[in-house]
Amino acid sequence: MCGRYKVTTPTGVIIENFQIRQGRPNLEARYNIAPTQIAPIVRQTPNGRQLAMMRWGLIPSWAKDSKIAFSTINARAETVHEKPAFRDALKHRRCLVIADGYYEWKTEKGGKQPYLFACKDDQPMAFAGLWERWERGPEPVDSFTIVVTESNALTQQIHDRMPVILAPERYDAWLSADAAEATALLRPCAEDLLSMRPVSRALGNVRNEGPALLDVEESPMPSLFPS
Predict the structure, then answer these.
(1) How many distinct structural domains can be found in the chain?
(2) CA separation for the pair 167, 193 (Å, rounded)
(3) Is residue 116 part of a domain?
(4) Is residue 120 part of a domain?
(5) CA 113 → CA 90, 99, 130, 222, distances in Å?
(6) Planar angle of CA 85, 57, 141, nearest 5 degrees
(7) Are 174 and 94 in contact (CB under 8 A)?
(8) Where do the DSSP E strands lie in 94-205?
């Protein structure tokens, strides 16, 4: 599973690395992206790759309301082709979810400790994603999900699932190939691609933001947004 991640890479680097041709919002650094929040994705259009902002938690076009999004933040690679919420998007609406690290929690002495997984070279990464447009509310909502698979040797120390991290040479295939070819890409990345380290337990509060979340404090960190 993937329930929290970050995007702190400068916008210009993202545009260059993902070869963006349309949509160039000035992205602010985000250290604690949580479900239902708006985050950047890349999708293919007839005029090239587009950078778009969408809500995390896929809302299928047929859903009666948006509450389903709380249970569709992730799609399992093994069943994504058959689940009603995801199978049509797998065929027609795949995307790259931009990130430069994601978090998982492990129960340790003193409570749950979050760990950051990031590329060793500090480059941004792309999670395999699916997107949908929901038009049954007051206004259309574009939303996405992150496809997850079994963990590799590194990440299984903390969790038995991990996001599908696509190599840059696989971006085109994920965005544009037929569903069968795209599904074949849904496997764990090599463990030597990633680093792992503990970070602040303040990540547990979705209201907390900022670079201090990447530090490990000696004592519980106070909320960055005290009530």
Answers:
(1) 1
(2) 10
(3) yes
(4) yes
(5) 34, 21, 29, 15
(6) 90
(7) yes
(8) 94-99, 101-108, 111-119, 125-134, 141-150, 161-163, 165-166, 194-198
Both structure tokens of 123: 């480059």
Coil vs helix vs strand at 158: coil
Inside any domain, residue 219: no
Catalytic residues: 2, 104
Among 38, 39, 46, 55, CA closest to 21 = 46
**Chain position carrying tokens 């970050």:** 6
Tokens 């299984």 belong to residue = 156
Mind listing the pLDDT tens digit of every residue in the chain (227 residues)? 799 999 999 999 999 999 999 987 889 999 999 999 999 999 999 999 999 999 999 999 999 999 999 999 999 999 999 999 999 999 999 999 999 999 999 998 889 999 999 999 999 999 999 999 999 888 999 999 999 999 999 999 999 999 999 999 999 999 999 999 999 999 999 999 999 999 999 999 999 999 999 998 644 444 343 33
Q: Which residues lie across from 148 on neighbouring strands?
A: 76, 163
What is the pTM (predicted TM-score) of this model? Answer: 0.93
> Which one, of 64, 10, 55, lies nearest residue 34 by Cα?
55
* Domain interval for residue 120: 5-214
Compute the C-alpha angle 132/42/12, nearest 5°.
150
For residue 135, the domain's CATH number is 3.90.1680.10
Residue 178 located in a structural domain? yes
Separation of alpha carbons 35 and 187, rounded Å: 23
